[in-house]
Amino acid sequence: MIASDTFSVTRDAQAIDDCWNRIGIHGDKSCPLLAEHIHCRNCAVYSAAATRLLDRYALQQEERGPVSVALESEVKTRSLLMFRLGEEWLGLATRSLVEVSPLQAIHSLPHQRSRALLGVANVRGALVACLSLVELLGLDGTVNVTPGARVMPRMLIIAAHGGPVVVPVDEVDGIHAIDEHILDSASRSGAQASAKYTRGVLQFKGRSLRWLDEEQLLSAVTRSLT
Q: Which of 68, 114, 130, 151 could form a disulfide with 224 if both were Cys (CB 3.0 to 4.6 A apart)?
């Protein structure tokens, strides 16, 4: 599920020599270092590429100056992606969503820059920073799974400043159109006003749903990468 064609590897990312896709574990495995490192994620070249990716986020943020989320404020977003983290259900405006993808391996990095940064994931051959929404939102990530329940974790690719980022979630319910009056009422109610990056709380399918403030969330994502 791709929201238009907004997801693409940036020119800086393309400039990175993705040798792991040519001669490494995802290529023909002809790299002479592969025998020593077993997997490309253990190689200094791979780590250097990941560090360069994070430096790109920081550099682009510095060039932009103060954080300013370029979202169309005049457009009333009524379409929300519903997903779960731990025991909590959340809703995020689809305009900040690029894609929902299957769960990918997350490769940790030495000397992590922030507690929210989990590492990097390989998305179509490109290294993409992977963040923990549980950490950013201050949630309890534990969950009691009902025996026999079919739960399919997913990754959300979000359009952040400097390039896309990936966030793992425990479950995705789908995209739903919510009546604007319900959203306006949830925003005015002040419910969970103290919760991080939250516009309001509404009832959906018999459960409480936190409607996330995408502008605040994207700003927090940017800060965690710089």
A: 114
